[in-house]
Write a structure and sequence with these properties.
Elements (H helix, E strand, L loop, with lengths): L16 H10 L7 E5 L5 H9 L2 E6 L2 H11 L5 E5 L5
Parallel strand pairs: 1-2, 2-3
Length: about 90
């Protein structure tokens, strides 16, 4: 299990369900929304987003987190995780 965030990548693992709920509320996410999450980590917020949105695309550059992310999303029909980097 991968438990320690890599500070050089700016990682923080958001496991507090109350904060996840507040983020989803603040973003005003609805069942018809399609969400792109950049830096999905282990997928804690991703799973919450997938329960609230129509579809979630989760990007994670850290190859060590791709396995845990995939595991956390496997039971969700609307989660799609990709290893990679996104820039806007």
């Amino acid at each position: 299990m991968y438990d320690k965030p890599k500070k050089r990548l700016g990682q923080n693992f958001l496991v507090d369900k109350n904060i996840q709920r507040k983020i989803i509320e603040a973003c005003d996410i609805h069942a018809s929304d399609i969400v792109l999450e950049v830096g999905a980590g282990k997928g804690e917020l991703t799973a919450a987003l997938a329960r609230a949105a129509k579809k979630v695309f989760a990007l994670e550059i850290d190859v060590d987190l791709h396995g845990p992310l995939k595991e956390n999303l496997k039971h969700l029909p609307n989660g799609n995780n990709q290893r990679g980097c996104a820039a806007i």
